[in-house]
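R.M. (postdoc): so does anyone remember the format we settled on? I'll just put the structure tokens first.
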């Protein structure tokens, strides 16, 4: 079900027993992080700090910190349910219609997306209940300083709206924002991000709008690795089954979701830089100081009963684990369109998602594992992956014990490990050069004679099925 506010989502989590209200006046300076970190590590509920110190705006953390909450945010029971919906849609769109019924079915699928998914403009919305143009300030927000060596308070769940200065194409990204003072922040869009591309093209200051809260599906859409031509709002509308309503900003022509809790309007000067960081990042290490663009606040609009969404990142597992797992599950059908041999995929939380991919395949020919490795490195944000492990289709990629057993037994290190070079993530601190480094692929599949393996490959140790059934029957008699 679509949510018209962060309040609605919080209320749903409370009904599910997935939210705890905190009345204690917790301090956004470090204290809320320590409380939240303990709850996240204990696989606990979302936390609504009703009276954070220094602010009248409630603060919500860990809202996405379990599969149940992440699925609820997307209006589904499980993440695989969303993936199946996408797989069904793609299947209907890709099949050549053979009959009138098929044509009608395809038309119905396309019509459903075309009528319910695209965003639509409205004249006003809840995000306009309070408008502050004369003296806008960030000081009313309970912005967290998360870790002791952070350079300051950071907005950690912003939906950053920009338009390409030439084409006008909209983009929504999630880029952390360090608060410098009441009217300026950093804008941490990294080299490979679309926001950074808009800045490179711009020849003069250009408008930026930052939305906080609203339907949580928008938060996910801003993080999703969508193909370049897919609008994040179209994707969000498809997931929620209802168009996202947009209103025009007060100080620019940008449009923002009408049901946002808080909207920060402003601009970025493409020539301006300021030191940003350090920041305790999702890698578990601090991102060090570096010059980044500056966001200047020109207007604040918000709901009367707004909630400020926040998250903490640090040594995994953290709340962002389930945002990453949502992408892993939902985008698997899209990956199979390009690589139909892929059976399953795991982006381990402990490897911060982009550092390791474990993929199982239906191996059909010599060198097939290497084909898959190189194809993955050529797909969008997969280019950042430092290590890809390929296993056979019968291996459960989500069982680390099984993967380690298979791979450590199945490889000859010199023969089965591939090294190559390519782009690395902006946050990667280990590469010799920033943005560029080495990558490793491991072929953990069964080796064939056609791949030069001349010995006999040993069978797995498996008990006789009849013996297993007999022991099942007598088990209760053993007193074990």
């Amino acid at each position: 079900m679509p949510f018209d506010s962060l309040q609605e989502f919080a209320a749903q989590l409370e009904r599910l027993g997935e939210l705890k209200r905190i009345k204690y006046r917790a301090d956004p300076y470090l204290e809320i992080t320590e409380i939240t970190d303990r709850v996240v590590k204990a696989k606990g509920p979302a936390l609504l700090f009703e009276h954070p110190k220094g602010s009248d705006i409630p603060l919500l953390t860990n809202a996405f910190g379990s599969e149940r909450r992440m699925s609820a945010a997307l209006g589904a029971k499980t993440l695989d349910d969303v993936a199946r919906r996408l797989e069904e849609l793609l299947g209907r769109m890709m099949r050549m219609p053979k009959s009138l019924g098929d044509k009608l079915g395809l038309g119905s699928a396309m019509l459903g997306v075309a009528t319910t998914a695209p965003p639509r403009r409205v004249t006003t919305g809840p995000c306009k209940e309070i408008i502050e143009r004369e003296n806008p300030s960030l000081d009313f927000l309970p912005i967290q300083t998360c870790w002791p060596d952070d350079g300051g308070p950071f907005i950690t769940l912003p939906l950053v709206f920009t338009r390409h200065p030439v084409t006008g194409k909209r983009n929504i990204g999630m880029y952390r924002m360090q608060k410098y003072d009441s009217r300026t922040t950093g804008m941490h869009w990294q080299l490979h991000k679309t926001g950074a591309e808009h800045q490179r093209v711009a020849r003069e200051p250009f408008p930026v709008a930052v939305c906080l809260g609203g339907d949580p599906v928008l938060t996910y859409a801003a993080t999703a690795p969508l193909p370049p031509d897919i609008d994040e709002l179209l994707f969000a509308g498809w997931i929620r089954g209802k168009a996202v309503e947009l209103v025009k900003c007060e100080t620019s022509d940008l449009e923002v979701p009408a049901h946002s809790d808080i909207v920060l309007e402003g601009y970025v000067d493409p020539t301006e830089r300021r030191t940003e960081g350090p920041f305790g990042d999702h890698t578990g290490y601090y991102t060090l100081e570096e010059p980044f663009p500056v966001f200047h606040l020109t207007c604040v609009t918000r709901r009367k009963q707004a909630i400020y969404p926040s998250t903490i990142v640090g040594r995994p597992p953290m709340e962002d684990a389930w945002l990453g797992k949502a992408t892993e599950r939902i985008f698997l059908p899209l990956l199979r369109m390009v690589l139909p041999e892929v059976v399953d995929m795991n982006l381990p939380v402990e490897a911060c998602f982009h550092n390791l991919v474990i993929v199982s395949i239906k191996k059909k020919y010599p060198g097939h594992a290497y084909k898959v490795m190189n194809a993955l490195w050529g797909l969008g944000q997969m280019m950042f992956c430092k290590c890809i492990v390929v296993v056979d289709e019968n291996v459960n990629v989500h069982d680390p014990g099984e993967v380690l057993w298979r791979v450590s037994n199945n490889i000859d290190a010199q023969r089965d490990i591939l090294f190559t070079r390519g782009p690395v993530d902006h946050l990667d601190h280990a590469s010799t050069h920033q943005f560029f480094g080495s990558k490793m692929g491991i072929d953990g599949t069964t080796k064939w004679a056609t791949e030069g393996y001349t010995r006999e490959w040993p069978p797995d140790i498996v008990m006789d099925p009849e013996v297993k059934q007999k022991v099942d029957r007598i088990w209760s008699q053993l007193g074990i």
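R.M.: ...and that's the designed sequence above, right after the tokens. Also worth knowing: The longest helix spans residues 100-116. The CA atoms of residues 173 and 292 lie 16 Å apart.
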